[in-house]
Amino acid sequence: MISNRNRVRRFAGSLLAAAAATALLLSGCSADTTGDPGASGALLTVPREDMGTFNRNFNPFSPNAAPMTQQAVYESMLVYNPADGSTTPWLAESWESSEDGKTVTFHLRDGVTWSDGEPFTAQDVATTFALQQKIVEGSFPYVEKVAAADETTVVFSLSEPFSPGLYEIGQQVIVPDHVWADQESPDTFENKEPVGTGPYTEVTNFQTQSFDLLPNPHYWQKDKQKLPGVRMLAFAGNDGANLAAINGDVDWAPQFMPDIETTFVDRDPEHRHYWFPPTGSMVNWQLNTTTEMFKDPEVRKALSLAIDREQVVEVGMSGYTEAADCTGLSGSYSAWKDESLIGACEWIGYDPDKAGEMLDAAGYELGTDGTRTTPEGEPFAFDISVGSTSTDWLSVANIISQNLADIGVTATVDAPDWAAVTAGYEQGDFDTGIVWSDNAPTPYQYYRSLMSSETLKPVGEQTFSNYHRFSEPKADELLDQFSASSDEATQHDIVDQLQELYLEAAPVVPLFPGPEWGAYTDVRFTGWPTEDDPYATLSTRSPTTVLVLTSLEPAA
Amino acid sequence: MRFILRRLGFYLVAFWLSITLNFLLPRLMPGDPVSRMLSRSQGQLDPSQIESLRQLLGVDDRPWWQQYPEYLWRVLTGDLGISISRFPTPVAEVISSQLPWTLLLGFVSLIIAVVIGNLLGILAAWRRGSFLDSFVPPFLIFLGSFPYFWLAMGLLYVFGITLGWAPLSHAYSVGLQPSFSFEFIADVAAHLVLPALSIVLVSIGGWMLAMRNTMIATNSEDYILMAEAKGLRPSRIMFAYSARNAMLPAVTNVGMSIGFIVGGALLTEVVFAYPGVGYQLMAAVQGLDYPLMQGMFLTITGAVLLANFLIDIIYVRLDPRVRAH
């Protein structure tokens, strides 16, 4: 009989052997990459906090392409920068719209080549748009035809004048015709070896949690391609990515970091900086305007006046952003704001006394027990919905609830999972809620989702914008005029009118513009965008990222 | 043999029940994958493209009774489909790139916890009232009841950041090529230390206590007294007589734990950025990625059932009483 001790030992031994075999198997799996990254210096190291692992998918039409696909590998015809409102010609040198607004012509840059050495031509643009419309039906609904007039001229024929389309068209990343035209199923093509016009296209050393992009050997701006390469790291959540940033393992930290001054900057104040421009989408408190109590714009305005936005921003948002100003427009629309309105608003501010008076006047009177009742005699009480995982917005909702309690309104914070919250928003089955808004180069989309009858759906029918279900005929008219006009002065005039209309109608209660997170260390690389030089934001996922990648250079 | 066949039949029914649940539960959650994607992108995605994105990603809008037979067929033929949150990567590829790491981390920490925990339990029961018996179990239980996240963060802070003894994240150093070289295996081992340690610290107390308690019961059996009376060596009595008979519950527990390893250690993976399936599973659930969710639940179900089946068979060898029934 074998003694028990030996048996245990044998059992453990075989398990250990199994574990070792697993380790060997693992190492065997993916040992097919070659390359010697970092041979010419440190790579720009960037964390990605919401992907625990990477998949080798560089298909720019895929909603889940590997990070940097649309930023470093492929490029667009123009780049719009929300931080300063400027537009940089990129693959196109210039563009113009016809008189009737139904034709947009892009003149492409000469001498641009793909990373495999082929020349970049107008046909590539035409193929890209054909693919995009084929893969995602309904994209660019206003684009009827894209034709290559000659090697460097692309003509877009629109079904109707649609001026906001210029930026949408211009910011579409372009793929090469000679690679994509023959793809049988471009939607499921993983594109493991991408061919792009971008500065860093050569995928090297692709592992489950990291990969490197080395310089494009045929880049059209050689003088701006100064990095030895870009290295992406995968992290399953903010904590891991923050730790890497705090420890100095990464150069760029585009994720939310709590108490950034002490945790990040103080460890090396000379080199570590952060900049959170308010160029994200405006974060609103939306009131379901189909419910009896929120039908009256005076009630919505009164509730807005009861909110202490300074407290919301300082406490709820850790001071990382600023309170909404009287235009209700986020910082990405600074150029569109009507200056005369900024100092003169009636209901975007903090004045609880006036809020109380307005509610009294609207029939929501204060009872002897200190709470208000609706004109029908019911208690004036409702829920504030917010997703439980957004801890910052959750604390914003709690502050609003306290502010409202001060004027006798009972608002209960309801924080289930985001999925349940958005399902309620989409069906119109909610009282009030904290919500993002549309953010595009022109305010057209923003106002369209706030006040247009086109986006309005009845309660019970699923919608993906205008959750608060509000429309205003005057807004429809102005929006139509905006999309039909390509003259900038006219457009500004229309947006001014839209701002006035917004202030009159109060479709939602604006809280604060969402900040665009971004921190960096200039130990290894310099040339970052800053508040004084806002040539781009510090985002790693927006069209402006390519501007940063072509401006950074290794520190001397 | 009849015993094994009967067990096999039971496992088939259990398997069918669990894949049916795998099918139903995700569909009871509110929303659909594309609206989740939209709400996560917070205004970056154009609402007018929702319908076509649904089509592109293959979101199935048909009633469940039409989807179900097809689902069963695909499960049987091993076709797991294409992931939605990782579109267009096939589910099998997503899982197979992460499962090995989960298995490595899970097995290494399980083996360490089981071996050390059980040995400590045996020794503690053998020397009742000693330091090992009276102070170590409460201390380990105390450690195990720490909020898991906190313990892992604490380890990471002390050994990773302050002392710099262990790497902070990932399964191996960035830029290293996976290979059979000593360098690579040593690097993987170094990256494994903290995550495995955090799991071992939390689970070891349970193993020790369970073993100690059953061992105390067997120690009072007549055959132990008999063995002592025969003058056998104490170490032989301890391992071959007492521990062997006390081991049965531990074997069951090991089987259960092996099955659950496949589900991944979510919190460990998040804290140490370890590339296992746990985080992927959470992301799949949050993004309502039905194909990926189904694929992962299927893997977990299969692993749990398989492990239990193996334990059933081992039981037949270990415990003659099972055979009699």
| Unreliable runs of chain B | none
Using the CA coordinates, give the radius of gyration of chain A: 27 Å
Taking pLDDT < 50 over at least 5 consecutive residues as the criterion, the unreliable ranges of chain A are 1-39
Order of helices and strands of chain B: HHHHHHHHHHHHHHHH
Biggest interface? A-B, 77 and 75 residues
The overall average pLDDT of chain A, rounded, is 88
Number of helices of chain B: 16
DSSP strand tally of chain A: 23
Number of helices of chain A: 17
Structural class of chain A: alpha+beta
**Separation, N- and C-terminal Cα atoms of chain B:** 12 Å
Largest sheet of chain A: 5 strands, mixed
Overall structural class of chain B, as computed from helix and strand content, comes to mainly alpha
Number of strands of chain B: 0
Share in β-strands of chain B = under 5%
Shape of chain A: globular
The helical percent of chain B reads: over 70%
Short description:
The complex is a heterodimer of chains A (556) and B (325). Chain A has 556 residues and is of the alpha+beta class.
Describe how the helices and strands are arranged.
The complex is a heterodimer of chains A (556) and B (325).
Chain A: H1 4-29, E1 44-48, E2 50-51, H2 69-73, E3 75-76, E4 78-81, E5 86-89, E6 92-97, E7 103-108, H3 122-135, E8 143-150, E9 153-158, H4 165-170, E10 173-174, H5 177-180, E11 200-204, E12 210-215, E13 230-236, H6 238-246, E14 252-253, H7 260-263, E15 272-274, E16 282-287, H8 297-305, H9 309-316, H10 339-342, H11 352-362, E17 381-385, H12 391-406, E18 410-414, H13 418-427, E19 432-435, H14 444-451, H15 473-484, H16 488-505, E20 509-513, E21 519-521, E22 525-526, H17 545-549, E23 553-554
Parallel strand pairs in A: 1-13, 17-18, 17-19
Antiparallel strand pairs in A: 2-13, 3-10, 4-5, 6-7, 7-9, 8-9, 11-12, 12-13, 14-21, 15-21, 16-19, 16-20, 22-23
Chain B: H1 2-28, H2 33-41, H3 50-57, H4 64-77, H5 91-126, H6 131-134, H7 136-144, H8 148-162, H9 182-219, H10 222-229, H11 234-246, H12 248-261, H13 266-272, H14 277-286, H15 290-318, H16 320-324
Helix pairs in contact in B: 1-4, 1-15, 2-3, 5-9, 5-12, 5-15, 7-9, 8-9, 8-13, 9-11, 10-11, 12-15, 13-14, 14-15
